[in-house]
Structures are given as structure tokens and as C-alpha cells.
Amino acid sequence: MVTKLSFSMPEQPLYRAQGIFSHQSDSIDRRERKRPFGPLSNFVADQLPHCIAEIKASARPGEAVKALGRSINAMIAETDYEAQLLNLPQSEFGVAKTDIQYLVNCAYQMSAFAGLHSVDAELTVGEALRQLARVSRQRQPSIDVLSYEDMILTNPLQSDPRVYCLGSAGVEERDFCLGHQLIESELQSAIDALLALRDAVGADARQCLAVCVERLESANYVLARFYERMSPDLFGQFRVFYGKNPYKDRLGPSGRFSARIVAVSVLLIGEELFHQKPQFYMDVYRLSEYYPQGCIQEVFRWLSPDKGGSGLQPSWLEGKADFPKFATILPVIERHGSETRKLLASCVCALDQFSRMHRSTALKYTIEPGRPIVGVETSESVEAVLSQRLLMAARQS
Please, what's the b/e burial string for 99-127 (b: 16 or more CB within 10 A of its CB; e: otherwise)? Predict the structure, then answer.
């Protein structure tokens, strides 16, 4: 008996995507406040962009940045935010961690804007804020700078977004982050369908693959909005806040660190990707701390179940074992006919189109205007990083 699986087919991401980069408003409608830290969250959501604008307009930005740091640390000292942080439910903890990291990142980025020495930058961050960030990482291990997870996944973008800019630039900043969040939602639906195909006995292969194609095509639709509608000038205004940390050897939050793209890639083309682009896997393991930890550790468990998702480079990546084909859907596909293989090819094509669109968008908004790619190290080839998920066979189709 063939098991019939039912998947949620979310229409909201596509509906929401139609409104991003519309340039019809210069203010954000905060429909539902998400303020787990009370006054501190209020400050991040409502006041921080105004403070940044004042610093940028100040005749003495260095003093203004230091004053902002003292104000933030004094606010933290007034309440036992550490205890609050440890006792928040997980749904609220994510937003609270985002608030903390937005403050830390602001202190570093604006210190660099003002030309402060690293010692003064650390004083601007302050011990109270630094300790609060440390406690947040103890509860949920993550990189010690603003991460892709903070910026995209836990930022309450649909109702009460955290942004750094005012006016139209702030709306564009919200839309940039929201577009990524909508893409992540579509990718998760594709992952759910592929995992059902891989792991559920008697799963309807055609149904699972059809859902995957539809979700990947929806993600492509959202990404196309970036390429077609995003304002280069507004992008330039907010992107500076999400760059590499100017005082630490740390990369900025980047779509490169979407663990869900890694998961879809492993499930669909994992073995072929290993043979054609082993550097893709080497970089995922090498830079694993930048990815959302829950998802990337799950992928590592697929790839190295004997290591329990430890994130250690597996023996197959060193050529000492075969690639773990069971991490992918290929063993299931091999038991089906040509129609199923055609659907798989459609999924691979949709993933390739997504990677191509991401590459084209990065070229248009960052490389061609001469802006730095925040998720790429100085020693890396930008072209190689942007092409890591493109298969040679898919290019020719």
C-alpha cells in the first residue's frame, strides 16, 4: 500500500513577495510588537535607527558613538536581562538574541564609521552588553557576531522588524531581509517533501518531487524580485551595516550561510556535487559556525551519522570512504521509473536556476558596483564561491 502524504502548500510567501521592493512606502507598519526584552527591545526596534542617523550627521561621531555605547550599557545594568534571557521561551529567546546581536553589531560598525581604535570600539560595546551576548551563546551556541540566523530567521520581519536605517532605506532593508525569510520558508517546504521521499516507507515519489519543484520555483520567484526590483542606492545605504566585523576576523551574515540551501543540495545532488565540486563540502565544514546550527548539524548527521553531527570533516571528504549516498534521495529514485527521474531532473534544474539567479543578483548589486561580498574571505575567489552549487551537467541543459 502506497502511503499518501500531505504537505502544506503555503501561499503566504508568494503573496508577501509581491509587496517587497515595491517602493510605495517610506515607513514600516509594525502590526504586532515582538518585544521580549521590554525597554531594551523597544530601543532596538524604535530608537536605534534614529541614534545611528544622529551619529552619521554628527560633527564628532566618535564621541557620539561612545555616548550611545554608554547609554546602552546603562540601560542593560538597570534590569537583570541575563535572568530574563535564560527563562524566555524559545520563540521569544530568538528575538531577544537578535536584539542583542543587533546592538553589538551596531557598536562595532558605527565605531568603525567613526574611525575608533579597536580598544575604544571594545569599550563602546561595553562589558554589560558583551556579557549578555555571551550568555545568549551559552544558551544557544552560535558565532560571536551577527549571524544569518539572527538577521533572517529569528528577526520578526513580518510584524516588527529590526533594521538599522530610517525611511525608504529602512523599508528596503526590511524587504531585503524579509525576501530571504520567505525564500527560507519555501526551502523548508522543499526539504520536508524530500525527507518524506527519502525516509517514509511507501512515499509517493511523484507527489514529493512535484512539491519540491513547486517550492523551488516559488523561491526563484522571490529571488527574481531582488534582481528586478531592489534599489541599488537604497541597498548601498543599509548593506554597510551587515558587512564583515571591522575589528574581528569574522564574516558578515550572508545568503551563503543558508543551511537550508545546503540541505536541499545534499538531498537532490549530494553525491554528484561531491564529485564535481568537493570544495562546496569543504567550505561548509570549514565555515560551519556561520550557519544556523540546528539545521546544519542535522545535515552533518545525514552525512556522518557515526559522528553524531559533530561538524568534524568526514572521512569520505578526505577520499578515505565512499560518499554516503543514503543521505540523498537517489537510492529511492533508483527504484522508480523514467517519469520519476524526469521530475528529479526538474528539481535539479530549479535548484540550478536558483543558484544562477543568486549569482546574477550578487554580480549586479555587489561585484559590478564594487561593493564587497560580506560572506566571502579575502583569500577566496568570489566567482568560485558563487558557482559552488552549479553542476556542469545542469549548465548544459
Answer: bbbbbbbbbbbbbbbbebeeeebbbbbbe
pLDDT 10s digit of each residue in the chain, 397 long? 334 444 444 455 566 778 899 999 999 999 899 999 999 999 999 999 999 999 999 999 999 999 999 999 999 999 999 999 999 999 899 999 999 999 999 999 999 999 999 999 999 999 999 999 999 999 999 999 999 999 999 999 999 999 999 999 999 999 999 999 999 999 999 999 999 999 998 899 999 999 999 999 999 999 999 999 999 999 999 999 999 999 999 999 999 999 999 999 999 999 999 999 999 999 999 999 999 999 999 999 999 988 766 778 899 999 999 999 999 999 999 999 899 999 999 999 999 999 999 999 999 999 999 888 889 998 998 888 989 888 876 544 3
Full DSSP string of 148-194: HIIIIISS-TTTS---S--HHHHHHHHHHHHHHHHHHHHHHHHHHHH
Q: What is d(CA 277, CA 265) in angstroms, rounded to the nearest whole number?
A: 12
Torsion angle of the four alpha carbons 72, 77, 82, 88, in this order, in degrees rounded to the nearest 10? -70
Of 377, 390, 307, 303, which Cα lies nearest the Cα of 351? Answer: 390
Query: In DSSP terms, which residues pair with 348 in a beta bridge?
Result: none
Which DSSP symbol is given to 242? G
- Grid coordinates standing for 74? 546603562
Give CA–CA dist 207/209, Å, rounded: 6
Q: How far apart are CA 220 and CA 213, in angstroms?
A: 10
- The reported pTM is 0.94
C-alpha cell at 223: 529571488
User: What is the Cα–Cα distance from 101 to 137, expressed in whole angstroms?
Assistant: 10
